[in-house]
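# nightly structure sweep
# worker-07 picked up a monomer target from the shared queue
# config: single-sequence mode, recycle default, output format = structure tokens
# input follows
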Amino acid sequence: MYCKRLALPGHRPATGVQRQGSHTADVTRLRALVRDVLRAIQVQMHLYEPHELLDLAEAAVQLARPSQLWMQAWMGALLPYMKQLQLGQLARAGAALLAYGGNPSKPWAGLWFVALQPHLPSCSARELALISYALQRWGCKPPNTWSQLFLQTLTHNMAAMGIQELLAVLGACLTLDLKPSAAWLQGFEAASQGQLGLCSPRELALLLQGLALLGYQPSAAAGGWLQQYLVAVDEGLREWDMQSLGTMLSVLGQLEAGLEARMLSRSSSQLQILGHWSNFCVAFSP
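# output follows
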């Protein structure tokens, strides 16, 4: 005979649902505490040093989305130090703002780009991609001398970029209405060619569209960029959504290389169908 062990009131093991609810409550309390701390810091923002301001912004964005007023106070406190910041600090400031999702004032963004200019030749591929995202998001157009230096620096870094970074570069060029040289576009083509097989359908569509909008005609030579592009399309054709497929076909039909692309497509029954449909998409494109 044995005694059955009874669970005492108030000491029952927590169920999975209870543990999850407790965790959610803890996170909610933590975020409320962080917001209280941020409000206290906001009125003293001007007392902080640049490196402290950068630490604050990164922590604030990660732990609890700060208010717009808080970010404005932060930008105002950092503004007097902008031209003194090193490249890494400028990149951190830009990354914090991009992570927050808001847009800085045009004077703040303009000074950020001006402060970056002497550092552009030293930028890594990752930092250039960050700058490209900022150019798209913030709608600020730097002076022509800045833009030309930006393009020149990209020439030496595009080979080290991933496809998302290259797409950000394309977006920046289109936002600024830049006209890269033929040599620059050939360098971009070379940098992206080896990654075509790794692209998602959306990335492939945006890549072709971006090059076309910049006025570039991809090489349709055997083994060239366009042939490899079509192979990448063919291999992932079942994964394409209608929007990406429509974009790709419409742009392909508008390129001067479209005829050669359709010639290349004869080696693939699926791509032969795409060749016929490209004419249809061009006829009904906006």
